[in-house]
Amino acid sequence: MLQAHPVPEPVPVPPVAATVVAPPAEAEPRRRPHRRRAATATPLPQRSARQIERLLHEVFGLQDLRPGQQEVIARVLAGQSTLAIMPTGAGKSLCYQLPALMLPGCTLVVSPLIALMKDQCEKLRAHGLAAVEFNSSLDAEALAAAEAALADGSARIVLVTPERLADPDFLALVRRCRIALVVVDEAHCIVEWGHDFRPAFLEIGAALRALGQPPLLALTATAPPETAAEIARLLGIARSGTVDAGIWRGNLHYAVVPLTEADDKLQALQDTLQRCEEPGIVYTATVRAAEEVHAALAAQGLSVGLYHGKLRAAERHAAQDAFMEGRTRVMVATNAFGMGIDKADLRFVVHYQMPAGLDAYYQESGRAGRDGLPARCVLLYQRRDRSVQHFFLGGRAYTQAELARVLAALSPDTPTDLAQLQQDTGLPRARIAALLALLLQARHCRKARAAEGRAGWLAATAPRGAPTLEALVQAEQARRQEKQRKLQSMVDYAESGACRWQVLQEALEGERRAEGCGQCDNCARMLRLAAPDVLVPAMAGGAPPLRH
C-alpha cells in the first residue's frame, strides 16, 4: 500500500507590456492584488535590432524572438533592472544569453542547482559562448581555470551558486572584473528557499550592493503577485520593472483525479500512465513515496527511473541522463528534479501527492509540453495528502530573542564564524545561518573573513530606516501565514468545479480569464452536461478521457 509519509532580433513580435506588482491588500476580506500594465515599453535601437537578428540566426540558430523576449532584452540592453515572469518553455535563458554577447563585460548568473548550472554551461559552450561555472563540485584545476578566465575577461558568462556569490573571497575576485549584468535564474527560490534551507539566497541583495548595484535580471516561470513583490523588494527592482508574459499555455490540459482511499492511488496512476506511452514525470512530495512508487511501477515492467535528493550524485546523474536520452520513459521524482530540464517532448506530468501551492504546481506541471504539442497535467488528489505539506510547514518560527542572541554574539571588530556562534548561542548551526541571513538582509550585520579563512560575520550599525528585529519577526510570521494560504489554495484548486485555468490564473496573476479553457476536466464535464450527445475528449488530438 502506498501512502503519504511526512517525514533571435525582433522579427516583429508585439511587445509584452511590463507590469507592476502591488503589495497585498490589508482589508478583509482579503483581496488579490492585480498586475497593472506599465505605460510604455522600452524601445529597441535599430542598430541593436540588427545585431540581435544576426546573433539570433548565427549563434542560436533561431528565426524569431518569442512573445516577451523582445521586451526583456530591450530593457536589459538599456541597463534597466527587470523581473521577467515568463512561462516554462518561453525562452527565459535567451533573455540574458543574447545580451551577454552584446554588453561590455561579463554576465554573472546566479543559479540554484549545480546540475542545472552544469547543463546551462554545456549548452552555452555548445553555442560557442565562453562560459565558466563556480560551485562546490569543481576540483582545484577546474576552479583555477575558471578564476583565470574571470580575471582575464575571457569569460562572457559566469555561473555561480548563491553560496559562492556570498563568499567574501569570490566577491573580491568579481569586484576586479567589469560586471555588465547580474542574472538571478529561478528567482522564486529567493522567497521559497531563502527563508528556510538556502539562506544564501537572502544574501544576494548584499552581494549586489558590494558589486556596486549592476543592472539585474531576475527570471522565473511563476511568481504570484505577493511573491513578485517580495522578489523585487529583496533585489531592489523598481515597481515598474516587472515584465509579465502571463502563464497561459493552451497546449496544457489540466485534470484532477479525486481519491478517497490510499490503495486506489497506485491504480489511478497506472491508469493514467496507460493512456500515454510517451515520456513524462511522476512527482511525489516525499522521498519515501518516490521510492515506493518507483518500486511498484518497476514491478509492473514499466521503463521507470528514480530521482531524489538523498541519492548519491552519480545515481542522480545516471537517472537524469537515462531519462533525457530516452532510455527511461517515466521519471519518478521529488521536486529535486526538473528545474531547468530542457526535455521538450514530455507528454504528461502527474502529481502523486499535491505540492505546497499552486505556484509550485504550475512550475512543475509546466515542464510538460514545452514543444507546444498537447500534454496532460494530472493531480491525484487525496485530501489527507495535505498533512504532508503541513508537516513541512511545521518548523519552529524564528523569534526576536533568537535574533537578539545571535546579534549580541557578534563583534563589530572581530569576525565570528558559525562554529563560534553555535558555541556562544547554543542554537543549531542551520538555524544560526538562517538568522544571520535575515540580519544581513536588514543590514544589522555584514560578512567578513574569520580565522583560518572561514566565513565570518561582524555586527553592523543598521542604516536609518532598516527593519527592527521586531519587524523582521513580524515579516517572518507573515511569510508563514502566506505559505498556509498557498497550501489552502492548492486544496481549493483540487476541490474546485471551475475551469482549472481560471483558478490558476486568478491565483498566480490576480485575474481570472473571462471564459473557461474548454479543455480541462471541469470544462469537459460542463460541456458534457450542456451537450450530453457530444463526445468531449479530455484533450485535443482525440486522447481518451481521464477516469474520474
Helix content: 40-55%
Helix/strand structural class: alpha/beta
Could you report the average pLDDT, rounded to the nearest whole number? 83
CATH third-level topology of the largest domain: Rossmann fold
- CATH superfamily of the largest domain, please? P-loop containing nucleotide triphosphate hydrolases
Low-confidence stretches: 1-40, 538-548
Rg, rounded, reads 24 Å
- How many helices in DSSP terms? 21
Domain Helicase C-terminal: 268-419
Enzyme class: isomerase
Domain Helicase ATP-binding: 73-241
Catalytic activity: Couples ATP hydrolysis with the unwinding of duplex DNA by translocating in the 3'-5' direction
Structure commentary:
This protein is an alpha/beta fold. It folds into 3 domains: 18-244, P-loop containing nucleotide triphosphate hydrolases (Rossmann fold); 252-391 and 482-530, P-loop containing nucleotide triphosphate hydrolases (Rossmann fold, 3-Layer(aba) Sandwich); 400-467, Arc Repressor Mutant, subunit A (Orthogonal Bundle). Helix content is 40%, strand content 14%. It is built from 21 helices and 17 strands. It has helices at 46-58, 69-77, 94-100, 114-126, 140-152, 162-165, 168-175, 188-194, 204-210, 225-235, 263-274, 287-299, 313-324, 358-365, 386-392, 400-408, 418-425, 429-441, 469-495, 500-509, 521-530, and strands at 18-21, 35-37, 82-85, 106-110, 131-134, 157-160, 179-184, 216-220, 242-244, 252-258, 280-283, 304-307, 330-333, 348-351, 375-381, 445-449, 455-459. The strands form 3 sheets. Strands 2-1-9-3-8-7-4-6-5 form a 9-stranded mixed β-sheet, sandwiched between helices. Helix 16 (400-408) packs across helix 18 (429-441). The longest helix has 27 residues, at 469-495. The two termini are 21 Å apart.
